[in-house]
Amino acid sequence: MATGHDILGFWVHRMVILGMELTGKNPFYNVLLHGIICDNKGKKMSKSKGNIIDPIDVINGISIDQLKQKTKEMHRDGILNKEEMQKAISYQKANFSQLKGIPNCGVDALRFTLLSHDIKSHFVNFDINICHSNKLFGNKIWQSIKYTQFSFAKLKDIDVIITREDLTYFDRWILSRLSDMVKNVNLAMDSYDFHIATKALRSFIYNEFCDVYLEATKPGFESENCKVKYAHAHTLSAVLNTSLRCLSPFMIYLTEELVPTIPAFENNIIVNFDDDKQRYFDFPKTENYDVWKNNDLEVNVAKLLHTLYLIRELKGFYSLPTKIKPSIFISTTDENLKSELKCNESVILKMTKCSKLLFDDKTMKDCVTAQLDKNTRVSVEVTAQVANTAKKKNFYLLSLFTTKLKLSHATWLFYESRHGKSMADGVGGAVKRQLDKRIAYGHDVTNASKAFHVLENSMKSGKCFYINSQDVENTNKLILDTIKAVA
């Protein structure tokens, strides 16, 4: 039985007593107590506060004018008094005007949103914006299946037998991540930690499968290599079938509609399901996916993806036009990373929208540079006009640095120009004054001092540095306060 903890004594105890009296046995043996549903500010929903949200309005959607009209009708019917009506209208205007009402989110998105909170806590804060975001998550899944159907349509009949040995670098990576997701979801479901399960599902499907793996398969499907195409196809089908079965308890209607539309092979080389005639889908088991777990591969791909993201950030920061496909230069002493980049060159160029991947900087004339880590430096070719514009970007340095700290990213960017010495001196002096002030008050400024010196040196060097958080260990609120003081 699932119920709120606030009515445990009023209702659940009495049900047990009555059940024992009438039948001689317990009516249920497990009770899952969830928190009280509150609004997005953590206030308990009540008529007196005017912050009640009708679940039907979330499912079907309603305009701001219809909400107002509905509230007035409740007042006429005696459900709300005049004061409660005014509070409800004010609440709706303050919270739903930007969206012009409550967008239709559907029952699956509503259920997924509620279960994405820790239901074991005493309060569950409901935010309509998060609910709408989860509806878009459902749209993302639908689009990934459309892509898979489109890719399957490109396959030609071949006489060659496809085996697991034919799986590509990114095929094996996504299967390793799939294994991790299935394990986390099973553990979370067994312990009723549904919020952990939903987080694992959304993170895997959205950030790893859709954002990375689908993009990585495009060069393969565009190539003439039939084995690569079929390896991608087997992987796409297996990952979607597994993921949506893990998702089915949370998004029942979506998965029931979409699972039968996933293209499949008579015998998939990765995993097969035989639940077509069953009432419910078979839930993926952890032990069936352990064979795909590969920690070393995940570490290598993570480093490769960090390189890719750095290239994208450089292009975005310097506003390189998408129609221009620049060359990339990688200077690294990490031979493993160099080998991985060469083997996956077509994927890197496709995902970064660049033309060449080079390991010789003699051909790089105008470029912007970033430091990935102590072993690797990345440069992106730019036009002379962009190179001149880059000189004027110095004033963004502190705000970007502060933003990166707020978001707690694994890596930070330090942007500056080749002619920023005077500004570097000005910033340096301001930061140093803050440090001196903190030292005078007895604060430990070891970390802040380290951050300051990195900041100052990067500005004076005239290059763009990308520094891993491990290079500035134990960075805390002190650094953020110091940098914000001069931002």
Describe the structure.
With 487 residues, the chain is α/β, with parallel strands linked by helices. The chain has 3 domains: 2-124, no CATH class; 140-293, Isoleucyl-tRNA Synthetase, Domain 1, CATH 1.10.730; 391-487, no CATH class. It has 18 helices and 12 strands. The strands form 5 sheets. The chain has a 4-stranded mixed beta sheet with strand order 8-7-10-9. Strands 1-2 form a two-stranded parallel ribbon. Strands 3-6 form a two-stranded parallel ribbon. The longest helix has 29 residues, at 194-222. The two termini are 54 Å apart.
Task: Strand order, main sheet: write it out.
Answer: 8-7-10-9
In total, the number of domains comes to 3
Query: For this structure, what is the CATH homologous superfamily of the largest domain?
Result: Isoleucyl-tRNA Synthetase, Domain 1
Number of strands: 12
Low-confidence stretches: 392-449, 458-487
